[in-house]
Write a structure and sequence with these properties.
6 helices, single chain, mainly alpha, globular
């Protein structure tokens, strides 16, 4: 595999790392959270995962860019933004709400 081409098993592994990082975050185990998210490569093939990693890293601008791309490519739905714990710190953010409204109007 090339660095920018992931397999389904990579997707599952990255999802697991993101969810484990969320658990570490909630437990206040920041170093372990950071270690997990550093294992996930940023790839144009993974806008959904990249958005989640950016959210965990508190990189709002990157998260918004990846969310927009994930919504455009339909690798993430607006409903998922509203329920996935990785986005909980940003759900009420006006820019995220704007992305969700735009996604709803396109459907």
């Amino acid at each position: 595999n090339s660095p920018n081409h992931a397999t389904h098993s990579d997707d599952v592994f990255f999802d697991i790392l993101v969810y484990r990082a969320i658990a570490y975050k909630r437990l206040g185990r920041e170093e372990e959270m950071k270690a997990d998210i550093e294992k996930i490569p940023i790839s144009r093939d993974h806008p959904r995962i990249n958005a989640g990693v950016s959210a965990l890293k508190k990189e709002k601008s990157a998260m918004l860019d990846w969310l927009k791309k994930a919504l455009e490519t339909r690798s993430l739905s607006y409903e998922e933004i509203e329920v996935f714990p990785v986005f909980e710190d940003y759900r009420n953010d006006p820019e995220v709400q704007s992305l969700i409204k735009n996604a709803i109007s396109r459907n």
